[in-house]
Design a protein that fits this description.
Distance between the termini: 51 Å
Largest sheet: 7 strands, mixed
Strand content: 15-25%
CATH class of the largest domain: Alpha Beta
Helix content: 10-25%
Shape: globular
Number of domains: 2
Radius of gyration: 22 Å
Structural class: alpha/beta
CATH superfamily of the largest domain: FAD/NAD(P)-binding domain
Order of helices and strands: HEHEHHHEEEEEEHEHEEEEEEEEEEHHH
CATH topology of the largest domain: FAD/NAD(P)-binding domain
């Protein structure tokens, strides 16, 4: 069996044959493919992964110059999994001989995994709606050619394709970093970036490398945050690059700025905070994050502080059988937005499903042995003695 890459016509006939599944995974990115691998190891056969574009689509849409901030390094011989691996006994570093992969390389890594173990990936399938289906004790998943039935749904659609385009009035005048194919395509010599976390600093670094002058405005001044958790502070890889850019004299960092509005003026754009105003001759670049794909099925979750509430098994607290994997997972102060974090929850979800389908979960113990079965979140702190 080989990986299935299909268009809508092929999907239609395929879905008529396989219209009922035990599990449907929505999304074939890092979370979806990684979760599929665990279900395969569990021995589950009747499942499908639905992807509206291609495997690893979000990574393909990264700006060409964007690389992983987490390093890939082969340490399997010493019991250490590559930080960017989503499956056991795999390593992006070994495949590409690179420490910081770009998006296209990582998408290829995901394709290789899906092909090697014949994951049931169906591309070109857009999930339009998910409904609770009491008559089949599961879900009705609406796609262009009909409704697929599943006892369980695992939402793995991610965030990058769902940018926050309206963080303040006038944001429609700006360019979101996720809309950039390559930083070389932007015309002009001076740029202003709104948002100073990883994507904002990556944009700044790449523009400075092209000889541009760049100003970064950030609400908190993230570059000064010393929290050891890279989910809330800049990674060492980014800080090193920012330091080098600052030494050129072409990068200016301005913190404690809450942007209230952007307006168009004859000389370009005016960026307003409560007390200050900055002029940008080029379209401001907003790097203010992503709304996330869960907003598409928001009615199936309880929400708190902007995040979907999940139980201890990453299941919706109001919709039994609906699980979430990937960067949208939150548990109190534990943020699972990096691959090396959210891959530790795949086995937790698989274990919950195995119990309900009367499958033997013994195959998942190898995940626990290799540090990929994190079901005790009491260890999720970042205390460091030095």
């Amino acid at each position: 069996m080989i990986i299935i890459l299909v268009n809508y016509t092929r999907v239609s006939s395929l879905m008529k044959k396989l219209e009922t599944y035990d599990v449907v995974i929505v999304g074939a990115g890092a979370a979806g493919i990684g979760m599929g691998v665990v279900l395969r190891d569990l021995g589950l056969e009747n499942f499908a992964i639905l992807e509206r574009h291609q495997i690893g689509e979000s990574f393909r849409r990264w700006p060409q110059e964007m690389n992983f901030i987490t390093p890939s390094f082969p340490g399997h011989g010493f019991g250490q999994l590559d930080l960017n691996a989503i499956a056991r006994k795999t390593s992006p570093a070994i495949i590409f001989r690179r420490e910081h992969l770009n998006g296209n390389q990582y998408a290829k890594y995901l394709e290789i995994i899906a092909d090697r173990i014949s994951l049931p990936v169906h591309t070109g399938v857009e999930v339009q709606k998910i409904e609770v289906s009491p008559q089949c004790h599961g879900f009705g998943i609406h796609v262009p050619d009909g409704v697929i039935q599943a006892q369980f749904v695992i939402w793995a659609a991610g965030e990058f394709q769902y940018p926050n385009l309206n963080p303040f009035p006038g944001a429609d005048l700006c360019l979101h970093n996720s809309q950039v194919d390559s930083w070389t395509q932007l015309q002009g010599d001076e740029f202003t970036i709104l948002g100073g976390y990883e994507s904002g600093m990556d944009a700044a670094v790449n523009l400075v490398a092209l000889g541009k002058k760049v100003k970064v405005l950030d609400r908190s001044g993230t570059w000064g945050n010393t929290d050891p958790d890279p989910s809330v502070s800049l990674s060492p890889y980014t800080l090193q690059r920012v330091e080098l850019c600052c030494s050129t004299g072409r990068l200016e960092l301005i913190g404690n700025v809450a942007i209230e509005e952007v307006t168009a003026i004859p000389s370009g754009y005016a960026i307003h905070s409560e007390y200050d105003k900055w002029i940008s001759p080029t379209q401001p670049i907003i790097c203010t994050g992503f709304e996330g794909s869960l907003k598409r099925i928001a009615n199936l979750f309880n929400w708190s502080d902007g995040y979907a509430r999940l139980n201890d098994e990453d299941e919706s607290t109001i919709t039994p059988g609906l699980f979430v994997v990937g960067p949208s997972v939150r548990h109190d102060k534990a943020i699972f937005c990096f691959i090396y974090k959210f891959r530790q929850r795949f086995a937790v979800v698989a274990n919950s499903i195995a119990r309900r389908l009367d499958l033997d979960p013994a195959a998942l113990e190898v995940y626990r042995d290799e540090g990929m079965f994190l079901d005790d979140l009491s260890c999720c702190d970042n205390d460091c003695i030095c």
